[in-house]
Please model this.
Amino acid sequence: AQTVTQSQPEMSVQEAETVTLSCTYDTSESDYYLFWYKQPPSRQMILVIRQEAYKQQNATENRFSVNFQKAAKSFSLKISDSQLGDAAMYFCAYRSRAMGANSKLTFGKGITLSVRP
Amino acid sequence: KAGVTQTPRYLIKTRGQQVTLSCSPISGHRSVSWYQQTPGQGLQFLFEYFSETQRNKGNFPGRFSGRQFSNSRSEMNVSTLELGDSALYLCASSLVSGSSTDTQYFGPGTRLTVL
Model:
């Protein structure tokens, strides 16, 4: 079974600065997807960024980028130029890409990010 | 295009009752997954339905069940409610199941409180 660990329950960042959220995972599979989801106080879960394990290049979406270290099973999210609207709970998630895989996501416990004006 | 909708948004029940939650996926999406979110356990996968068939089931007791209709709308049912069932129940839809390029879109959730 796969597990996802987010060891930092809370983080804080100054507006306009950069913050990195950590995530590690454990799996015996070689092919999978990793995701970061954002859940603001409104509770609507939003996909921030995704990474395919077979791709060596780190994914980037505007101010959001990841540092994917497959051998270390590490998947951190970097938020640049932090904005007040980035304040939310962030979840790291894993999805298998094995034959017959379905859409099941395995989530970490999440990290609450606050942004100081 | 309308997003994933869940009804009701809030629900209060008492122990021993049963409850049915509904999820309408984005138009054209055929896969619906359900998750339970609690402060203690975080987000846990309940089950996934694709084309009216259950594709995968999480580690939950048989009191939790679901189904999917021909229009892809899905319902989940919890019988004999327990206090520990109080949670936010999220559903997510995607075009197909397990696709490499598919993105799951989440609904706003149903907040269930069991008294």
Observations:
- The mean pLDDT of chain A is 92.
